[in-house]
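Changelog entry: the Desulfoferrodoxin record was regenerated in this release. Current contents:
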Amino acid sequence: MKFTDVIQSADWKAEKHVPVISAPETVKAGEKFNVEVCVGKEIAHPNTTEHHIRWIKLYFKPDNGKFAYELGTYQFDAHGESAEGPNKGPVYSEPAVNAFIKLSASGTLLAAAYCNIHGLWESSKTITVQA
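Regenerated structure tokens:
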């Protein structure tokens, strides 16, 4: 079995589990820019003790490179848990993150997200770097 056998992909406008990558299509080499990754942009994903997004991972694969680079792992640990019972807690982590990065080469941003009920989901976005 391989990751490709278990990781799912779909159009984020119709599927609430897909991580949505928001970033410019073109950036200048070496200049900092913001990448937002969230789950549930068009269709809200539940955020309950029983059903939630646990983490998002963000990677970059340069066009001229063999390997992807991990940019960050973002854990979401509060889902309404409490000693009083499920969904009675005072705080919920929302599955969204902002990462500020600099690139020196064009390539592809890749995001993966994990739902505790529905497993692994992925998406990607191409970024062009101008000199």
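The longest helix spans residues 3-6.
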